[in-house]
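Collaborator request, handled under Task 6.
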Amino acid sequence: MSDLSPLAQIRIACGTSTGVATLTTISRIIVRTRKSQLWVDDVLAIFSMCTLIVQLVASLINPSKAPGAPQDHDNGAVRYYLISNMFYAVIWSARLSILFSIIRITRGFRPNRHLAIAAALFLLAWVVLTAQLYWECETETAWKHAEIPQCKLDRVVAICQLITDIISDGILLAVPVRLVMIIQDNKLRYRLILIFGTCVITTIASFVHAAFLFEVKEVPIMIAAVIESAISLVVCNIPILATAIVKMQQHHDDTILAPHSNTVPRFWGEHEGSPINGGNIKHCPLPLSSLQNRIPAVLSI
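Structure tokens returned to the collaborator:
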């Protein structure tokens, strides 16, 4: 990938990661729709997927200034703001989806007041970081005239992102651990452990992105951002998909181990599948007494 242009690298990273994240989200929605279990966490996952797709479309925009366009209204600045705003939208809506998944699991077990406060803090962090982006980028507009416009963010932005990432991911890691110690239901404990394990992945991705922000490497920053946003969406879908796969496997095992019916098999009739021709045995709908009355008549033919 190092032989490709920076623009091509960003587009490939964004397209690949978005494709994986979108596929997992669609699979999640199919699972929930079939069971009629759509809830707030699923709506947030759908919103996160839509914003991720917008981010992909923005990465495909030609950053060069359109012919005849004003000097301060070029495609590059619009493209950068779209990608940056959608980054925050994907990240925080995915985190809110995970948080509401925890709220959904714990409904009826304990009050969710603290989790509701955490959701409000997540929304506040989303708004503050988005506002900070415009505060940093609109005070110095020289970046808009570069070949590939990208705002050079101050280290304060990196520090704020790192702090909010640590706090939010810390909440998403600590809450499942605490609930696992309280809840006795093994299925709910399993789902909480899944949420804990997947949140670790998001934390690692956010640290990588923050490291590039501190080093002020423009192209790696953009690539790390689009990959982190996609990972966040995948992570919020994994617990639901993993639980669905486990349930399907358990249902399959239960079907195989289910006791056979005691009804008498049918050895004749128009249906295909008698044991003579190797097909499936069909069960006789007639009572045993009626079958016994028919046997002499069959033998006399």
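The cover message to the collaborator said: "Helices lie at 6-34, 40-59, 75-106, 113-138, 155-182, 186-215, 218-257, 288-300. The radius of gyration is 28 Å. Please let us know whether this matches your experimental observations."
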